[in-house]
Amino acid sequence: MGTQSHITRVGIVAKPGLTETSVELGLVTRWLDERRIESVIETETANMTGQSGRRLASRDELPSLVDLVLVFGGDGTLLGMADRIAQANLEIPILGVNFGTLGFLTEVTASELLSVLQAAIDGSAVIEPRMMLRSHVARAGQAVADRIVLNDVAVTGGSLSRIVEFAVTVGGDFVARFNADGIIISSPTGSTAYNLSAGGPIVHPEVDAFVLNPIAPHTLTNRPLVIPANVEVTIQPVLQRAGDEAFVTFDGQSGLELQNGDVVHVRRATRLMRLVRGSSRNYYEVLRAKLRWSER
Predict the structure, then answer these.
(1) How much is the pTM?
(2) What structural domains does the chain harbor?
(3) Are 106 and 122 in contact (CB under 8 A)?
(4) Residue 193 pLDDT > 60, yes or no?
């Protein structure tokens, strides 16, 4: 846990098409103006919400221009910015305002926005460091992709309904050849995303571990495995039959098709994501609210 202060520029990004954020965005920019804090607005967000006369930047440019990123939307929008911040070799904090349907990461409500933003600016906010994953794809000894992600790296079969064989090692030790629809390597933060949908465990964000989760494995004894975060995981799809396909996706934001012999490497990133939390709730309260625990 930690706090952040000395914020002089705030970057603002909204989910594409989320025009209902225009009221909150206008309110925030005026609030920042009153405190002589510059707003830097993502270009598509400015166009969508009718903002003018502000400094604009692309999503890729934004991290290097600001001290805090404010995200309006759902977890997908926040993931995209978290990955861009890490790729820029930065650790500026992100404050996510939930306009989505679930929102484990964008858990601050519109009514809480200004009070949480004030806490972030004056240094009293709770800021959680979240582990990120670094993944690269090796093809014939060359890296063809290199990404930093917050939630997960997924290696999956193609569009046809057929299982693929995946050879997996952890820390250099062979684990198994999994016949499955795919393999998910998840961070603790990502344990409530694709991993949870695929039957994996929820891992508290402070636990120093990954989850290795086969997707719909052909052998029922293949279960999700929690492994130390200080080791490297490799996944190699075995594409031997005509029509076999495999793809790797990074946080569901980007990806590429794999060739036979490609190896996907996943390890802990050196950079952390810094998440500004609403001070009124803890992690278990978020789980209860989002997963509707104890409701009948």
Answers:
(1) 0.91
(2) 9-125+278-291 (3.40.50.10330), 132-270 (2.60.200.30)
(3) no
(4) yes
